[in-house]
Amino acid sequence: MSCIHLVALLALCLGAVRALIKRRMQQKDLQPPQLPLVDDEVALQNQRSYDNVPIPAASVPTPVLVENWPTEQHSFGQVTAVSVDPQGNPVIFHRADRYWDVNTFNESNIYYLIEYGPIKEKTIYVLDSKTGAIKSGWGSNMFYMPHGMTIDIHGNYWITDVAMHQAFKFKPFGSKPLLTIGKRFRPGSSVKHLCKPTSIAVATTGEFFIADGYCNSRILKFNAAGKLLRTIPQPPEFLSLQVPHAITLLEHLDLLCIADRENMRVVCPKAGLKSSHGEGEPAATIQEPDLGRVFGVASYGDIVFAVNGPTSMLPVCGFTIDPRSEAIIGHWGDFKNPHSMAVSVNGSALYVTEIGTNHQTNRVWKYVLA
């Protein structure tokens, strides 16, 4: 029996139990006590209204691979990130001729190859959603070791560079950042420093989160102007992260879901976009034997798509996750070394990138959500 069928069966059984209890109470003329709720209790009830409620299987889309996409072959470097612009175009961020290996950083996380300068080629390409052909590109002579990229609802590009230890906000095709977090080539753990930041998630409110990253294993939350609001985790919050590699927001549920790579799980603490109530409470945690090291996450309504990477003998594939029931409810795809993923604005397509050693293994896949 599949995971989706099992979840549906459990929901059916739970409904039957509830109906039986209701009938017994009516037969005995018993009514459950109706106690007035104070304001805080109402808020708590609203905050937790989604807890442990499985998503109906029929409402969960299954990613289906689009064969022969893109229709023409590209010669990308390691494609470390993909996002989708407001026009529905997939956009990739790649390293061109740069590779991250044992000689890239020293023991203090200082980038060894500063003297080589930034990547001379364009590092960002906008692709046609139907054919995968390159429509435009930019980002030459700007970045040293690309990693994460997110495009917000206004079309702004949010980018992380692990060599520079910085996160940036750009207008499309901009040469100067609108906002910079972190100190150039200076790794650190203070609130003014980053160390190999991996990913950024941006809320419709303008608040944004930075996954920081390979060294600090923390999430930093900022307001729209770049003022630090919160660090995740922070005392007395009990949440130990180990390489938060990607993050995504489920704004309807007020959750921030994290690909906690080396802990081989997805964790979803409260984002605190609606209110600070619930911040620091135990995070929803999805950790099952076949999940492995999670590299990418992307939200779709109230569910999360995820991809793992090479982990011992586990299959490398995609997962559909329900954070409300803390369960994997679907498997899909077949990959070698996936690194990032993104869902289109209208929810019709899912894109997954892979990194490798040549243009045949550095690529982007398109799935339709059927």
Automatic annotation (TrEMBL):
Annotated positions binding a protein: R95, Y214, R261
Cofactor note: Binds one Zn(2+) ion per subunit.
An example Gene Ontology CC term for this record: membrane
EC numbers for this chain: 4.3.2.5
Keywords (A to Z) from UniProt: Calcium, Disulfide bond, Glycoprotein, Lyase, Metal-binding, Repeat, Signal, Zinc
GO terms, molecular function: metal ion binding; peptidylamidoglycolate lyase activity
Cystine crosslinks: C195-C215, C257-C268
Family stated for the protein in its record: Belongs to the peptidyl-alpha-hydroxyglycine alpha-amidating lyase family.
The protein's role, per its UniProt record: Peptidyl-alpha-hydroxylglycine alpha-amidating lyase that catalyzes an essential reaction in C-terminal alpha-amidation of peptides. Mediates the dismutation of the unstable peptidyl(2-hydroxyglycine) intermediate to glyoxylate and the corresponding desglycine peptide amide. C-terminal amidation of peptides such as neuropeptides is essential for full biological activity.
Full protein name: peptidylamidoglycolate lyase
Protein species of origin: Drosophila persimilis
